[in-house]
Amino acid sequence: MNPFWSMSTGSVRKRSDTEEKTLSGDLRTSPLRASAKKQLPSIPKNAVPITKPASPATSSQSTNGTHASYGPFYLEYSLLAEFTLVVKQKLPGVYVQPSYRSALMWFGVIFIRHGLYQDGVFKFTVYIPDNYPDGDCPRLVFDLPVFHPLVDPLSGELDVKRAFAKWRRNHNHIWQVLMYARRVFYKIDTTSPLNPEAAVLYEKDVQLFKSKVVDSVKLCSSHLFDQPKIEDPYAIIFSPWNPAIHDEAREKMLTQKKKPEDQHCKSMHVSGLSWVKPGSVQPFSKEEKTMPT
Amino acid sequence: MERMSWLSKLTPRAGGQRAPRSASLQPPVTADPETCLMVFKNHWAQVLRILERRGSKPAPDDLSAVRNNTYQMLNLLAEDRPCGDGDKDRSQGDGDMACGPILEFVAAENLLERLLCWHLQGDFTEERKVEQLKLYEMLISQARQPLLRHKPVLTPLLRLLSVCAEPASAPLENSLVLLLNQLCVSVAREPAILELFFHSHTDQGPANLIIFSLLIPFIHHEGARGQQARDALLLIMAMSASNRAVAQSITDNSYFCPVLATGLSALYSSLPRKIEVRGDDWHFLRREDWIGVSSLVLFMNSLEFCNAVIQVAHPLVQKQLVDYVHNGFLVPVMGPALHKTSVEEMIASTAYLDLFLRSVSETALLKTFLRFVLLHRHDNMTILDTLVGRINSNSRLCMVSLSLFRTLLSLNCEDVMLQLVLRYLLPCSHVMLSQKRAVRDLDIYGKTAAKFLSLIPRCCRPESPPLPRDREEEPPSRARGHGSPGGDAPAAPKPSTPSRLSFFMRQASAGPAEAAVPRSPGPPAGSPSRPGPRDEVAELDRNYLEYLRDARHSIDRCAWACRVWSAPYDGEDPRAPDPDGPPGRPPGPPTPRTKKRGLPEEGAREAPGGPLGGDEPGAGGPGPEPRDGGTLVNGAHGAAEPGRPEGDVVVKKVRRSPQGEGEGGRGARNGAPRAQPPGWEPLPSVDSLLEELLARVPAEPPGAGVSIETFTEELREIEAEMQNGGVGGAPAASTEPPEPPLSHEEEEAFASFATLPEGDAGTGRAPPRPPDPLAQVVASPPRAVGPPPSQPFTGPFVSVLFGKLENMPHNSLYVNFLLTGLVAQLACYPQPLLRSFLLNTNMVFQPSVKSLLQVLGSVKNKIESFAASQEDFPALLFKAKKYLIARGRLDWAEGPGAVPALRRTDTLARSRKPSLGELLLRHANSPTRARHAAQLALQGLRDGGLHPLGPPARHGEALRVRNAVYCAVIFSEFLKELAAIAQAHAVTSPFLTE
Lengths: 293, 994
Description:
Chain A: It is a peripheral membrane protein. The complex is a heterodimer of chains A (about 290) and B (about 1000). Chain A has about 290 residues and is an alpha+beta fold.
């Protein structure tokens, strides 16, 4: 029915790692994609759209003659393309999902697997300026202010600007911001910090810094099951392991992993043809299979 | 699995036919075996008395007595069951298993053999043969124990069959085929019997051959008999899959493959030469078009059978059959047929080829068809190039050719795309050197889409500016997310994505279940009132979302299908084949220096210094002397290829005459480096093919030879026809009268919905039709048309398409439907080389290479200047839209059934849609209602707009205006479609291509 959907599920699966099993089916990464198909994603637990738009008759946006009326589609698609690029990057332990309400707001979570911040699970939100891609760089704000030299201890905002002083279209992409966000937990930079305390501690008293980090990681983990900070159908929600729901989902993920091919074939009955030998540009250059005896 | 379904399909039928007969016979005696045996012996004694009365001719009474007793006996034999302990001492090799008492008696007495001998001695009339065949058929189908493994049963059976080998009356043939079918069913149930067949020789050779040689003549028969024969053969074929010996004997000792394949030739020859066309928009054969044409049905049955055989048979058989289809049908028959000189015949053969390509589902068979299309050279030109050239011709042939290419493109076949487009783009000589890297760039900000949309002619944009209602109705909740993350209170709502709201509203109203159903973007679902015509037309202006959705779907499909390709075609992989050639050289016509590197065409080209290498403009033709200095190389329009050397035509014509030698010459040249994969024995003509066949027949008794001879004869006829058809004659062009610009039907159809005001039409000047007489096309095929060697050339296909596109305002509505559909289809391919060529508007091309954007720009200008010259253009435009919507709806109502119901319906259903078509029928939620509405609308148009045909010139002018107005509508929609495709490329899921 919706081949695309199953595929994007596969994408998440591909990257998932045992430590993320706690993630429920909420971690579907393609509402944008789904929206391109004009469908709601299939399994947004707790994510039933609350406000169904009342009157669909408002689609009057493009009765005007200029192609300017298509502008919204450009923004929409640019962000969708950005999202596709994120998926292509396969950043380890980083998941994002655009919000239901605006393509300019993405929910995300980072799993830190090594180093000082090991076992950290940090939820965050990415805010993309509405004049994207011509505006400033996107902002990335952690739900809880992680104890980190580059994270504002009050707002939880990560200092993205230092890496992307000027946002350059065609050069800068949102996946770079996410990659940067992941990197700061592995390579700690203390110059001109947003959290001077953390910076100083890291320089002067690593032990104390470490213990503060551990506290911070614990704090984040203890709030993992909190309601999402921003109410949105596509917000990322964690819940305790519930066999009734999650066992089946996990099972599905694991079994699908084995034969993604078959699965796709079922949903898309098309296969192209090729008799070109790799490296050749001659049609029908592939040798025929040897005759079975 | 397929095979299973074939078998299960067959078996019940065999059973079903058995039932009535056994009812008509006496009910089998249910008694203990001993009694049965006694009764049996009793009958036999009576028969024996007659049999032993030697010398005298049997009296009629004797005959009926034997007949009655035999009936009883065979019934008893059929009911005979194997007993518990067998007689292990029997010396006959096949008697390992216990057999029933009656069977044992039959064997001991050699009873069946003696009976048959008695029949053969006398006057064995057809009637009596039929009787015997029926008896055996009953015996085999109803036996409770395996009978065929016993020589005393098998030998007389085979003998009987060999007696029936000669052609005979229908009843005899029916019984014969039925018996053979039954035999095959039994063999399929118990494959071990097959081994026996190999070892039991009759006076006609091995027994398995007899089954074959008897069945083969019926392969192409129509009706039940042919079907039974085909089913029976298919059973054997299925068995061959797991039994190499069987496969070997089919390929080495039977004529199955050649007869099947060359039979296609015979059947093809009886197809209509001219397709009676109903509608002005007809452009391909749908199932309902051909299901009523018996010769076509016959052909399709056989083609389908070929397909089925290839599906189930052993690779040996598969390969042989495929080779024979190529050498015995495609090359000798289809090739010349496609090159007939009359337009009608060209249309027919092109439509047939399209139908065949759509019908064949087995890759091996499809491969051979494609191989033929791509590589086979007829008249020194590949079929592909001939077909490409035909796009340039007058409207019906153009439409049929466009449909064929639609089919080809829908295969997502690398080899096809390579030959059509990619190989010309591979060297990247069409882009500036500095741009090579940009080939892979994705346009993620929608710049390309914006450019395409900006080309919508001003006159086609809706006049009234919209009410900025979006923002007013924005629910407050929407803005929440955008607030400053630091503070609780959301900042002032930002107009971040203005379309978002409506976007989601549509989304909400269209659940997943509805996704497949075409929806109107406008009126809410369930709204009882249909929008008025004004609204409907207005809706065309806001259907962009639909285009985005379709584009997304098409690209996903295409990208997914192209996973099997050998390379990504991203400018790096694969490399152009000829890196050290002069920069900017296309891979097309090689210079003598580069020849050895091999062109992807059937050997012929590669022979260094082939006898007439002059067909390559770069090599032997006179120096480049552009014909049409103003036009760019790949933006050629009209039949005349600009940039082609003038002298090439001459070379071409010269080459045409010595065709006879061409065939032979090719065979010789086939020894060149990469000529043909092993196994493709070049068989130049059907004649020699069949002669070779016949030579292999070792002193064949008439029975087996008959079928072949018939076919030889038929094929000779075809050959003769082909000869007369002007293959070797003078250049087709000179003899071909120019086609009338439009077919009568088309004229009529246009007239019927004419909505043009008379006043404007009366200028009296002839329509400025582009010169597209077919003759020129035939004479100057784009294949031979090379660019001057140093000029980048994006290939004949692109060149022809662009030329045709540039001419859009003059094309008929239907040509434009198909044409834009084809270009859109091409644009959906995800390969960066192709995508960047068509859709990357930032790319800087070599000055001589025209871009799609340029072509479209020139169309835009033409439309705008036309609109400026036409006072009532807005009114005309409105009417045209109204008509197109009504028409589209009608189409849609017929839609699902109208799709060719062959195997690849799925693909085709999608590709069938001409770009605009589907969007024009979004409203058709209820087929009947839609049809009704459409009919009303059409009626209205007819009544309101009917105007008597004016004098020809005036009519021509009206036609010109109509074409231009329709073009304006389609062009605008096409631009939206392209824009949507460009946008959708940027968001293709990486999982589709990985």
